[in-house]
Design brief:
Number of domains of chain B: 2
CATH architecture of the largest domain in chain B: 3-Layer(aba) Sandwich
Helix content of chain A: 25-40%
Shape of chain A: globular
Strand content of chain B: 15-25%
CATH class of the largest domain in chain B: Alpha Beta
Helix content of chain B: 40-55%
Oligomer: heterodimer
Order of helices and strands of chain A: HHEHEHEHE
Structural class of chain B: alpha/beta
Strand order of the largest sheet of chain A: 1-2-3-4
Number of strands of chain A: 4
Number of helices of chain B: 12
Radius of gyration of chain A: 17 Å
Number of domains of chain A: 2
Distance between the termini of chain B: 70 Å
Strand content of chain A: 5-15%
Chain lengths: 183, 366
């Protein structure tokens, strides 16, 4: 479910069919928009009612100036018992490069229920970098009183990391689709 | 008062969007003020600058439109502050009026353009259709410097360089990116430029300088208006002479495989990435092809391209516009019997497959 209302899903157009072929339903506007960027884009009706769907629902609230505020557009987001808001942190991004920066960033987002350490440098990611991310994100999570839900790592590096990162957080293995997206 | 912390210390590989890179690079270059008006796809330059501002004592002013952003930026420059703005598309159109004033008054303004599709509001995603506007816009002679970037490292390096070029030569300087470069993420090495031996050219005020004008120092005598034709003619010719004198120090290009090539692909910006990949691959297969990338679109590396064209190669200009780079190429090659072909895809990226096909056809004489 794409909830980025300023620069929505259209960057993922090249991989939409691929995701659907794997059994995912992708709720996002593809071409039929009134405009993008500063002209804005109306939220698809099915996105507003996303939390009424069966099965696992993943909401991508985007990034940028308004952070997680776009969740306000989803009916029931403030009271759904199963909704988890997870902040995905990459310490290789300069704005979240230190424990202090991560804490400040997460506090700006509003409601957050847990952190994911997604530290990487694209194709230049190393295990050492992922582990450094695990240390910083775990330290930030302690200060915030939040759990680290997982450390995510690309499948190529996963065997080198094992089932748990250096801080004991569970490891989630990622298959990268983004190189086939526009950006 | 304690010294302000440096925005970038040492050197570190990081992962971020191109817009974020620009904000950090401007701060690393010693820029103090950004003036801007929101327009996609450059908005995050402003967003990230405003996040850096309270940490590093920087200034941001959002104005009511791009005309105001441009003119307030010139106010910052006149006060001796390294100042910049960022815009795109229709905003770039409006920005030409203040930048024309900067040309006339030799004001070292820095402008980052993240091109989007046109004409008019067009699309907000990507194109290379602001080449003509950025290189030659305004009611003047195009007395400006335009760096065209093709990677995040370029965005970092040339944003820093743009401030130095602007303040060293006192011509407005543009960094020409595009929506894809602005939005995509890739690794980039951020560094403190002074640690790499890059001297940051200091800013100095044009107005409010110490002393009495005419007594302790010459009057500043800043003008953008001339009353009679001959007076303007002399002023413009002086600007042109100055520009042409420094142009050889500024001009930059990159070339590969041009010796012995039958076809040379010419491209800039993000399209150059595709061209570079194709040419290097074809070259490994023994296809006689090379590439030529103008890094400065103004001044254009005409002499270097003429040397390439003089060998009798066929040139293939590849761009996400309908012949805007090709116009600069053809002007540069004026008088030479050079064959210039085009692969023009306004507003969309040019795929490696179609580039390879066109190159092979041209190599075979088609």
């Amino acid at each position: 479910m794409d909830l980025d209302v300023v620069e929505p899903f259209f960057t993922l157009r090249p991989i939409k069919r691929e995701l659907e072929a794997r059994g995912l339903q992708v709720v996002a506007r593809e071409r039929h928009t009134l405009g993008l960027g500063e002209t804005g884009v109306p939220l698809p009706a099915e996105a507003k009612w996303a939390l009424r769907r069966e099965g696992d629902v993943i909401l991508d609230v985007g990034y940028g100036a308004y952070g997680a505020q776009t969740l306000n557009l989803v009916e029931g987001a403030d009271r759904h018992p199963d909704l988890q808001v997870l902040a995905v942190i990459n310490v290789a991004r300069p704005m979240t490069a230190t424990v202090e920066d991560v804490v400040a960033h997460v506090r700006e987002l509003g409601r957050v229920d847990g952190l994911i350490n997604n530290t990487h440098l694209g194709e230049e990611t190393t295990v050492e970098l992922v582990q450094e991310g695990a240390r910083l994100v775990t330290a930030a999570a302690r200060l915030l009183g939040l759990p680290v839900v997982a450390t995510s790592v690309v499948k190529e590096l996963a065997p080198l990391l094992g089932g748990r990162d250096v801080m004991g957080n569970p490891v989630r293995v990622l298959e990268r689709f983004m190189p086939r997206a526009f950006w | 008062m304690p010294a302000k912390p440096k925005p970038v210390e040492g050197e570190k590989k990081v992962f971020m969007t191109g817009n974020e890179v620009v904000a950090w690079a401007a701060a690393a270059a010693g820029a103090e003020c950004m003036y801007g008006y929101p327009i996609t796809p450059q908005n995050e330059i402003m967003h990230y600058w405003t996040r850096l501002a309270p940490k590093f004592g920087l200034i941001f002013l959002q104005t009511e439109d791009e005309l105001a952003a441009g003119f307030t930026m010139l106010g910052g420059v006149l006060a001796g502050r390294k100042s910049f703005t960022a815009t795109a598309g229709p905003g770039n159109t409006l920005m030409q009026e203040p930048l024309s004033m900067a040309e006339m008054m030799r004001l070292p303004a820095v402008v980052v353009i993240q091109q989007r599709g046109g004409p008019s509001t067009g699309q907000v995603v990507y194109s290379q259709q602001e080449v003509t506007l950025t290189s030659l816009g305004g009611n003047g002679e195009g007395l400006r410097v335009v760096y065209s970037t093709s990677s995040h490292q370029d965005l970092y390096d040339y944003t820093i360089k743009a401030f130095n070029t602007a303040w060293r030569y006192r011509f407005p300087t543009f960094v020409l990116g595009d929506g894809y470069q602005g939005k995509m993420r890739e690794p980039v090495v951020m560094y403190d430029p002074e640690l790499r031996g890059v001297e940051l050219v200091p800013a100095e005020p044009y107005v409010g300088r110490p002393g009495t004008p005419g007594v302790d120092r010459p009057p500043a005598h800043l003008r953008n208006a001339y009353s009679i034709e001959e007076e303007l003619y002399e002023a413009v010719m002086e600007l042109v002479r100055e520009y042409e004198k420094v142009a050889p120090e500024i001009v930059e290009h990159e070339a590969f495989g041009v010796d012995g090539a039958r076809v040379v692909a010419v491209a800039h910006g993000v399209v150059f990435r595709a061209v570079k990949g194709v040419v290097r691959e074809l070259r490994q297969q023994g296809v006689p092809v090379g590439y030529f990338r103008p890094i400065t679109l103004r001044p254009f590396p005409a002499d270097a391209l003429r040397r390439v064209a003089a060998t009798g190669v066929r040139l293939l200009v590849v761009e996400s516009a309908y012949g805007q780079l090709a116009r600069l190429v053809k002007e540069a090659l004026s008088g030479l019997p050079a064959e210039v072909h085009g692969l023009y895809k306004p507003g969309v990226l040019v795929g490696q497959g179609e580039i390879a096909t066109r190159i092979k056809t041209l190599v075979q004489g088609g």
